[in-house]
User: Fold these one by one.
Assistant:
Number 1:
Amino acid sequence: MVKIDHIELPDFPLLLAPMEDVSDPPFRALCKENGADVVYTEFISSEGLIRDAAKSVMKLDIYEKERPVGIQIFGANLDSMLRSVEIVEKTNPDIIDINFGCPVKKVVSKGAGAGILKDIDLMVKLTEAMVKHTNLPITVKTRLGWDHDSIRIVEVAERLQDVGCKAIAIHGRTRAQMYKGDADWGPISEVKNNQRMHIPVFGNGDITSPERAMEMRDKYGLDGAMIGRASIGYPWFFNEVKHYFKTGEHLAKPTIAQRTEMARRHLQMSIDWKGEHLGVVETRRHYTNYFKGIPHFKEYRLKMVTSDDPKDVFATFDEVEQKFGDALIPKIG
């Protein structure tokens, strides 16, 4: 069993990563149904929360069926972060997560996200203050370091643990790498193997198959996997990993009809939560993966990502279902 503070999780839990414009309530619900053990919200600006910005406040929506659920916030100003903790507490999440890993320029330029990796003392100070400011468990998501020459993640993780951080998720790249090159899980394993570490250490980055998840567990010895891009438009990924762990075999891939039904549900849930326009527009990023690998699919995909009227998108789903039915996507090669 793995524990984040008092929260009990199964051995080697699978966590849905916080992803901007992806990890919203509809998608989190689908991932939870399909095996995710913990889900996290999109990251939320502490400055946006204290200004009561509509987009930031909307991201606080969480539902009972998602639990355990973490709300992730980012920022570099101590007062703003503490005030945002007070706002977040009112929504009663299970976990508050701090984003010390986002590599995007507009976040980093303000010293937030991965930008704070250039000031480890401030990173530790912020974490300690937030731990003292709430009874909810505080966790951290970060990267190996700012660049290759400044990787101090073993020391950083230990310092965060020592000020009360209850779990750490580490992406196996530096900020300088962004999402290029291969994720390096070696330094994350070094964090886990530090005899002074007793909090869960989760790995993130390039977990693209059940085999890779097993490698993270068995070769690198980590406590769990935080799944990001592999789940976009493919919430089945979590159960596929669990099935592989249990049996050593691959779970049957969803049929095109099952993919269509999942996309249909996803769109309807998004419309119910965000309204028609945002629901249609912000679900488009998932369709490539929902229908990846189907031959001669371009015309259908084009309709899905260019139609602004949900009726047209639903009609396209119906067309796909009628044309392909229960067929499986053919294997390539």
Number 2:
Amino acid sequence: MQDLLYFSQQLINGLTIGSTYALIAIGYTMVYGIIGMINFAHGEIYMIGAYTALIAITGLATLGITWLPLVLIVALICAMIVASSMGWAVERVAYRPVRGKHRLIPLISAIGMSIFLQNYVHLAQGSRNIGFPALIQGGFLFGSPDTFQMSLSYMQITIFITTLICMSALTLFISRSRIGRACRAVSQDLGMANLLGIDTNRIISATFVIGAALAAVAGLLLGMYYGSIDPLFGFIAGLKAFTAAVLGGIGSIPGAMLGGLILGVAESLTSGYLSGEYKDVVSFSLLILILLFKPTGLLGKPEVEKI
């Protein structure tokens, strides 16, 4: 029973982290699915979303507003607005001018934007860790305190529910809305979509905005979960989310979700049964192993060359 509780604890921890990886990974996979490029500034947009949420929470506390639902809603809205604006700006500044050029040029442009945003936050907020208030506390305990107690915190439940809502809303948006159908058309054939009257520039910008908004949600959730943020907060999470997107199949939204969950569970089980020092080794080894047998990722589809 003790071993089962311990395994369940690691599984819960892995699904918690994996859920946020999936939210960030969707930004990578949507951009790649539409224009075939990797947005390496996406991790920094996620980090800026976390900082914006913290500033909003601090401002509300200064005004004496402490009602938890209102604080969370305002912080989430502010983070999504700022992050979405950043996503739109990154597309206009770093991608649109070099679209259609050799793929190396947009890659260098995105890396330059990533470095710029990191240093901007360094100058604006300082390089030290900043504490993030634990707004959601408490939880459930299972098992005997004499052996091992499995905990399921309210924060983890919040992450699960929020991720499920975001994923469901995105799925409905892509499948039912007019912009969602246009996104699918552009991802299949950008040139033909242009000929059919679809404003492809608007659709590509919308893709960056949607991905940035989901990253902001993940920034608020992980900020509260870990309890601190710093200017490099987005680099590591962005790298893990990109790995999750490749693992699930870059360009596939369900693949990004699945890849994030698998990566989170793999890291948690490695930390629980081996050592936290090996979690990155196991995660990237798993990625290499899967790509050796399925180069397109778990749910990715091979590209068909149009003639």
Number 3:
Amino acid sequence: MVSEPSRSAVKRERVRDYLMELVESCAPGDPIPSERTLCEQLGVSRPTLRSAVDELVTTGLLVREHGRGMFVARAKITQELAPARDAYRLPQASGSWASKVLEFTTVQAGARVGRRLHVSPAAEITYIARLRLVDDEPMAIEYLHVPAALVPGLQPGDMESGDFYDFLRERHGVRVHEAVQSIEPTVTNEEEARLIGVPVLSPALLFERLTKDTTGRPVEYVHSVYRGDRYRIVSRLALGDTAPATPLSAAQHHPGIPPGDLASRREVMTTGDVQPGS
């Protein structure tokens, strides 16, 4: 049975977003305010704040130094897998995929999400948290941010059936064209572990994606947590100019990306592989 998110989970997610915005505005090695100061600024309890801080420490964005406080961690090294002129091909992941909406609301974008979507921090966005299931088993949690002006009339049921990119195209005339996505290791916090049915601090994959339409306008910012015990990414590298291009089906599910009509070019093929349960 799928569990609903608690109020504390929603509050922790917003504290996490605030802390990530703080990290992005600082240089590596910069101190961040004390837990007491942050609790007062955000109006949250110490356990709620500490849970979000612990997550960022575990994922390598913050470091704690005994007797000194918390600091922004050194930047991670990024390795490009394909030349900029080519795009990822996104083949099918196995299994029958479905979605369950956990939260659906309209909120202000805030500074961090606003920068990604190129909208004012005060602009309204539609925020959706949904559980992704494969063969009725929880596999991932997705947090979607979409400019509200792009999707008037969007309902929770629209996010549980059909293809969101098809919905954008057919109902709102928005055609997605490209996306930039990062993938890195993480661990599950208490709420994520409860929702996807794994122990707390289990290995997981963190996807972050910014999707743009044919005009270059950002239309969607998503971050997702995929369980690491059942999901893996395999990259097949085409090193020559004669690699065959395999056409993609609109009904396929792609790692960290809902089914859609993104470009199908050659250079790197990234495959989502769902592992059988033990």
